[in-house]
Design brief:
mainly alpha, 17 helices
Length: 328
Amino acid sequence: MMSTLEYIKEPVADEIVRYERFMRSSLESGNPLTGAMLDYIIGNRGKSVRSVLCLLTASVFNPGGPLPERSLLAAMLVEMMHTASLVHDDVIDESDLRRGKPSVRKKWNSRLAVLIGDYILAKSYATGMECGHYDIVQCMVDAMTEMCDGELVQSDHSGRFDLTREVYDRIIYCKTATLLGGGAQAGAMSVGAGARDVATMKEYGDALGMAFQIKDDILDYEPSDTTGKTPCSDIREMKINLPMLLVLERCGDATREHLRQLMGKVREDESAVAEICGIVIANGGPELASAEMEKYISTAARIADSLPPSRYRQSLQALCTYIASRDR
């Protein structure tokens, strides 16, 4: 029970209510279509792990009092950056489902999905500039720059069998870890934590983010009724995730060449997708990736354990367990 999201959120429950009001009022639009799309996106945006992480990190260094508006802004920037990126990802990947429901591009169309994602980013950063919290905005702009760079590197390696572990680590750090690390960093910054504490929380968020993305890679081999996503989506997009990469590092030349040939067929042959998935699972890819994920979880847990005792620290400790054990 101590690793449930409800338990993790409990010490910042009042701040989450304040955050929700702040976020919704910041994104408000008088355009009925924009409003309808925002209602759909916000209402189906998932568990808000990134904004909760930001609020918890801020609260660690601001115990016992209401958080300043800077903290609410930091939480909004990190969550809305992630939210907009998912809307755009579904356009790029032509995904019909997001968390078991029609994606924005499926419910409306790709053009409107791109525009609403841009709107979310523009309104979020406009709020930060209007509030004058330029350091928080800069922190999250840096994270967004890294995130886009990671997507570009991944696209450059799509369908190629030259992906190394070093390049993979760079991709997932930029794509995922930098956003959680930046959110934790911004949370600590928002309440005036010292430079060492800010750096420590960024390290915590970075480690958690690396584990988070590896867990996503593992879940790509689970059925949609478990995850709410189309299974083997990485394979269909000709992306080599960690379970496949670890199998490729360990298998013989014949299996590696067979996988390479199969990967060239996934765009038009669903049986090739199923065969690749079966080979990765049969060779223990998800289990190998899980062992790698646990190394990052251990790093994050060690940092959380080093924080001053508080209910907020307990939630950050529990977040490590939650990330490792989630099923979607």
